[in-house]
Amino acid sequence: MTQILDQNTVLKTFPSGRTCRIEAYIGGGTQGQVYKASLDGQPVAVKWYYPNIAAQMPEENLQRLISTPSPSPKFAWPLAIVKSKKVPGYGYVMPLRPEGMHGIDDLINRLVDPGFFILCTAAFHLADSFLKLHALGLCYRDLSYGNAFINPRSGDVCICDNDNVTINGDRHATVLGTPLFMAPEIVKRQAYPDANSDLYSLATLLFLLFILDHPLFGRREHAVHCLDEAAMNHLCGTNPLFIYDPNDESNRPVPGRHVNALAFWPLYPLAFRRLFTKSFTTGLRDAQNGRVRESEWRAAIVQLRDSIHYCRCGAENMYDREQLANAQPRACAACQQPLVLPPRLRTKHGIIMLNHDTKLYGHHLSEAHLYVFTKPWAEIAQHPSTGQWGLRNLSPDPWKATLSNASPQDVPNGKAVTLTDGLKLDFGTLEGHLKA
Prior knowledge:
With about 425 residues, the protein is of the alpha+beta class. Helix content is about 25%, strand content about 20%. It folds into three domains: about 10-95, Phosphorylase Kinase, domain 1, CATH 3.30.200.20; about 100-300, Transferase(Phosphotransferase) domain 1 (Transferase(Phosphotransferase), domain 1); about 340-435, Tumour Suppressor Smad4. The chain contains 14 helices and 23 strands. Strands 1-2-3-4-6-5 form a six-stranded antiparallel beta barrel. It has a six-stranded antiparallel β-sheet with strand order 15-14-23-22-19-20, with no helix packed on it. Strands 16-17-18-21 form a four-stranded antiparallel β-sheet. Helix 4 (about 115-135) runs antiparallel to helix 6 and helix 4 packs antiparallel against helix 12 (about 295-305). The longest helix is centred in the first third of the chain and has 20 residues, at about 115-135. It is globular.
């Protein structure tokens, strides 16, 4: 593909006139080309539109986004419009995508293999970012695996191509979305992209992240000889069917083709799977009320991350109280040996598996805090002399620890309480009960 901008091309930001210099070509997409650049000596990225796309995208829409604060640092938000005296058209400056980021397609193709904890962390950031976007009355319109990137080592995410963002309910949208991620009502041209269709795209992206297969591609997709536009519209728009629809098994995954869906779906707790079932059953038909909200995904993903525990072989597994109530203890998904559960803390909000590396945060121990992962409020620690495992208080306030009928004991900041079966912990506004 011919590059529109050459190395060292000088651009000017509009209207401030700051200097932006092109350094290297990164890649091209359907709307334009992306370059690494320097803005007043600082590394940035520039997206330069193809001429036909630039003609369809009024500058005032982009300028409106630039004047809107970014909903979250996870968005590579437009910073300034750029133009050139020598090249017709225009583009915009955005933060450079951080090093180490990979697209979801790299996960599907197993080019990177993050663990479940990292997947949960990335999924949380995605749901949290779109909650913040929608709270501003905006919608994204084109969420897909082409514009969401994750760091497989940390779980950090970066959401690109934010020039597609518009006011929720905007009926002048020229971007409808990416076929595999478009809600049925958008595929059928019965509605314009909005926050509700974003929710469908988010559910699809999360399904691909956790299951590594498409939620609507089972036997029906396998029977298609040519996956052209007509076939895609049929599978994703006019006649969609979830591959794990509880009332219709005709679109189940095909062994040998949809291997990821068959392998990964059973690994997740029933409560988590029910959110996907809702997204791709009632959510296919009822855009207004049938889709899973971002806040629901956040809470479920946090609980899923809290359910992770390790087998002796080192593999991550997930605890599911519902399945254990009616079945024998599960075997490790990796080595097939029976799992030995670690101590676990139960609060009104769920169960937290206390592994050797577990850290608890404000939302675990207090009713007044919600999903801040920057500073832990407790951690698992081993006594240097006895080797006993305990829960160390890192929170601002002392705890009360009570065992059986004994008197409550204070656990001040910096001290640990031994993990003992039946221990009751009073964290102030929340109580926890220990099963060891």
